Amino acid sequence: MEIDRSLYIEGTLHRATSGNLSVPRFFGKIALEEAVGSTLWDAYGTLPATQEIAGTNGLAVSLDFAQDIASRLNDVPKRLDSMDQSGIGYVIVSLTSPGIEGVFDKANATDLATKVNDEIYANYVQPYPDRFGFFAAVAMQDPAAAAKELERAVKDLGAKGALINGYSNIGSPANYTIQYLDDEACEPFWAKVAELNVPVYLHPRTPPVDQQVIYGNGKYPLLAQAAYGFGVETGGHALRLMVSGLFDRYPSIQIFLGHAAEALPFLVHRTDNRLSTGKSGSDGPYKKSMKYYLRNNFYATLSGIRRLSTVLNTIEEMGEDRVMFSVDYPYESDEDASDWFDYVEGLSSATKEKLAWKNAVRVLNITAGLESYQTDSEFL
Amino acid sequence: MEIDRSLYIEGTLHRATSGNLSVPRFFGKIALEEAVGSTLWDAYGTLPATQEIAGTNGLAVSLDFAQDIASRLNDVPKRLDSMDQSGIGYVIVSLTSPGIEGVFDKANATDLATKVNDEIYANYVQPYPDRFGFFAAVAMQDPAAAAKELERAVKDLGAKGALINGYSNIGSPANYTIQYLDDEACEPFWAKVAELNVPVYLHPRTPPVDQQVIYGNGKYPLLAQAAYGFGVETGGHALRLMVSGLFDRYPSIQIFLGHAAEALPFLVHRTDNRLSTGKSGSDGPYKKSMKYYLRNNFYATLSGIRRLSTVLNTIEEMGEDRVMFSVDYPYESDEDASDWFDYVEGLSSATKEKLAWKNAVRVLNITAGLESYQTDSEFL
Amino acid sequence: MEIDRSLYIEGTLHRATSGNLSVPRFFGKIALEEAVGSTLWDAYGTLPATQEIAGTNGLAVSLDFAQDIASRLNDVPKRLDSMDQSGIGYVIVSLTSPGIEGVFDKANATDLATKVNDEIYANYVQPYPDRFGFFAAVAMQDPAAAAKELERAVKDLGAKGALINGYSNIGSPANYTIQYLDDEACEPFWAKVAELNVPVYLHPRTPPVDQQVIYGNGKYPLLAQAAYGFGVETGGHALRLMVSGLFDRYPSIQIFLGHAAEALPFLVHRTDNRLSTGKSGSDGPYKKSMKYYLRNNFYATLSGIRRLSTVLNTIEEMGEDRVMFSVDYPYESDEDASDWFDYVEGLSSATKEKLAWKNAVRVLNITAGLESYQTDSEFL
Amino acid sequence: MEIDRSLYIEGTLHRATSGNLSVPRFFGKIALEEAVGSTLWDAYGTLPATQEIAGTNGLAVSLDFAQDIASRLNDVPKRLDSMDQSGIGYVIVSLTSPGIEGVFDKANATDLATKVNDEIYANYVQPYPDRFGFFAAVAMQDPAAAAKELERAVKDLGAKGALINGYSNIGSPANYTIQYLDDEACEPFWAKVAELNVPVYLHPRTPPVDQQVIYGNGKYPLLAQAAYGFGVETGGHALRLMVSGLFDRYPSIQIFLGHAAEALPFLVHRTDNRLSTGKSGSDGPYKKSMKYYLRNNFYATLSGIRRLSTVLNTIEEMGEDRVMFSVDYPYESDEDASDWFDYVEGLSSATKEKLAWKNAVRVLNITAGLESYQTDSEFL
């Protein structure tokens, strides 16, 4: 751990600056939105992962960026090395967006989910049980099958829950519909989630092409979509779940949202104010306020977030026990996320410990032996 | 002004509670997103205002709410009385959403804009110059005409700028396209805005019906759209303006965004991080970061916002000189907005003065004689 | 519990203001710095409580204030009624300042401590076990006896710890010395505290008269002393404990400080910076930073504090698990403290629960059956 | 200016960490509590500066520290170099503590003040008018003479105001009294301050030896005094000024306090609450609340402060227009203060500009040509 100790040496003050500040490394961090690729992808005739990865589907990322991502998606030693450099002790991996949700054929999707879960288990969890856990892929094209696969992944492979990339494609590329998670067809899946008592990570996905028009004007495909558009579409998806009464039917269900809960902390009070003008019961069978659901049924991860005031807003709406560090590797850098988090002022040490690993350990029942990590410094 | 003076009477402490806290009224507030109706509407064969007002287009608002809105849109004495009750000294009014933007016929739209501006001037500004100013309506269906009308409204009627409700309909109800403000066709308008040096208030509007599907599942038309969906669509619209290079061509242009800048403060740092992965120049001719534009070319109003942590996040990204109180009357209540603002702790008195009226006076050159209002209390 | 429910009634918004805001009452709060008097006082020939109560020793309080205090110190029904009005469920009482510390005769002090503890137990704890606990009085004039009495009070009377009012007078009124708690003579007491594993509340006391000159210029005895002078003297006393190495010898000892830890959160980082310029070991046998001790060996109560930004500063230095609601009744009003706390924005519900009662229940092992109180509102 | 530009190079993310973060240097900062020595000192037979410099009077600082201070007090090139390294463009210097206040002989004090002001002008201001200004030394032992010298220094030497180190010694070392600034004898001085319309910086000084006992237990002279004790004694001194009615007699007088206004922001609301229990008029002729005076008659500098939450608390009580960067060189390091300030998150750029130089330029009418410094980064 690197501490700027010069201040503690007898009788000296810093009298020169290198324009740098030492980051007091916070070890044992846990990250939860970390993507992996799959060798099984091409065989199923679906969109190869590299085309629809966040920010690239029809958008102009640099070749360097795309190649860097592609190389890191499946390189385990490189991933571990990056974690070690950054003080990240344990990571929950999941299949990268668009994941199973982008597979048009229902049977393919179901089969692929099973194989992907086995592959992730074999490549990450089994060989490195004290470094990796995973969120299972599930084929929501067939919710009953998804429920079954979730149960298998949790009970047989030790999955910590499921990760779902937004809406699912139902049909074929030429003729498909979109299914969101509040669709009645998904009920068997949610019943199983409640029964297994595991969380579901709701992750963004590129909106359907014909709905990208809002943020793309045809002339410049906007990378901004990857940060703003996809994020807020996921926030809207979360609101659909709340309004659908899901959390009244199953009060124990917990949903993880990345990117500081996709701006919901910033806006949720307004959503409640507007909803109050409606005819009771006319816009969904929900019974409580959106703020209530946000702080009882949701957790926020800080994937992609490197701004103190955004984190403070999130903590104030949801409570610090429901906010967790994450990165979104390899689309974000472990190093940048950690340097920012480990240094940032404005959060108490106790708060940082919770965000760094304590909350995740409690919520996901992680037993990877992180207790030996230094948390509170005698000098900080 | 009501102050809880009992604490300052010799030798007493409160020894009973009524469960209420006195609000120390802050007089002379200025509000900027305050909607009015128009008697001219029906004559133009467009969507009557009451159908597409925020939250009602196809959504299930209560009849009471709709009738209350409808009655207040055009009732000047009732509006003034509400302002007086709430310590709001001066208001900038504008034609309610969807405004001119929802008028399909270009000639109608242009003609209507002119007549609406004259009507607002005659009903609000001329009779009450120390209580009302206005933002002009402009028909972006014909940007050159819009530029001309903006100039007339500013120079002849003293308009403080323009208010535009999102995208404009180009065509007919059966066959139309949507034009956002970064469209090249809008250039003459922006050149005029820069020349006149007045702000443009970019206000939400119900997204096109076929794009409402994201937030409405067909079963329950979501009122949440009015708070979340419409808002974030407006934030996306602002990002389009930034990415289009508008503020590089015209560094002086200022855009007002309501609802605490539509969550941009929460997300803007992430947008910058994602944009950095792109091929330089491939996603727009912009030259600076989104954060830079947000704090140099935008102002945030607090219409609909009643949450301290949201305000703090906004102030931290944009600076307190660029944040201003507003209500969104009659869709929100002057009284609720004022009770919340006047009481809220966590903002210095100096900050509150700026948000309440000082920033607006400076930016909009308001000379309504508000200086006599009490700002700093000797006891608070 | 009073919630402003009108916002949730179908289709209405507030359209009038009474200049008041409803306080959403937070039930089951616990308060820890609540003073009681004693009928035993006069018999021991010491300073009567009413002369040296905070703010009155040589200072000009109003007669009304002094009489109100005097009446409330011993009136149990009036105290309970005030608690009920304010949503305070459980209170830890203690003998009012200057307490035993102001008794000059060592034998008297020791004897008085024992009798006061029995009296408090008989009048508060025994008849109302689900409303009152207490911190024991101890005579630090004889630390070995104090240790013995603390043990008796904890084991036989269920005392939750001790409350000590600053320095102790050793000697006689005409000829005395002052003993602070880092004096070597106090070691037996601290060993016992560590053994019993109970906290010690370090409470302010009027500084010795000849040290009041800093804040009193002879012309105007400053009431400001009661807020600023006494408080910062207590903060200094806490720093003495840290520097003396007490928490290195006994890492488990926990000290409670009122008034948001007496400004230590605001200044502690500076104290560490200044200490780093010294010759290691020359100013005390302490081994860690003052910040470390503050967050590992101290708890802050919010007695007398009604300011969000002060609370935020305190939480950031110490963590929200180490901050607790309190009042300082009867010198402060339960009603004012509760109205402020229950309403204040800027703290998450989860944080408020911890400050209100969760932290105290955990730290003091309170089993008063508060679980039935409503904590999280479905509408807030 | 060092910006971490790698994020903006096409298509890359950081994939390694050095454990350091680049500080984006903020140029043109102004610092106001910067001490210089004087060659005249020894000749006047007073306490040599090096003995009573903060933290050394009877306290065990390291020899290295003391020598480093001594060398820097009078070395102008070294001081300028440090400023250049740290992005500090302009500094207001003043004679180091205990300054003139520590000179026992009234005639000596008065004479020394004049000579010190001429010396500072000749060594700092005259040769480097775009780098240095100064606060005049004044001999409060003779307030009428102090008023005269202040006027001379302001009008003839361009002094920006006066800096006074706490109380003054009146008499001889063997037999002296202490005079605080609210003493009636000081009235002629305050009248002149109001007339000249310049601020007075109220700086800490080691409390009189016999009042150090609070923080020194005789065994370990506490360096903590230099941070906590001296600071809070200065806060108490400021409260005396408020309570004395000085700001009612002269509403325009402005006092600068270092160290984030010596914890007054943290405690001032409590001081007001306690004062309200008194007999009106019995504790001073003041007419307003302490909070009112703090935000109308005081400015806070951040000398010695490197903690975001302390700064936020200060800004919330006083407003960001009344808070200014400072260092306390050479007792603190320009480099540490600047690295912290330039990097810290949680303050908007606009706020940082004000703290860094805008407020000081306005309040002290500084015309040193700092406008060319880059303030807002296009990338930050």
Automatic annotation (TrEMBL), chains A, B, C, D:
It comes from the Eukaryota. GO terms for biological process: secondary metabolic process. InterPro entries: ACMSD (IPR032465), Amidohydro-rel (IPR006680), Metal_Hydrolase (IPR032466). Residues 77-365 form the Amidohydrolase-related domain. GO terms for molecular function: carboxy-lyase activity; hydrolase activity. Keywords: Decarboxylase, Lyase. Pfam families: Amidohydro_2. GO terms for cellular component: cytosol. Belongs to the metallo-dependent hydrolases superfamily. PANTHER family: 2-AMINO-3-CARBOXYLMUCONATE-6-SEMIALDEHYDE DECARBOXYLASE, AMIDOHYDROLASE-RELATED DOMAIN-CONTAINING PROTEIN-RELATED. This is Amidohydrolase-related domain-containing protein.
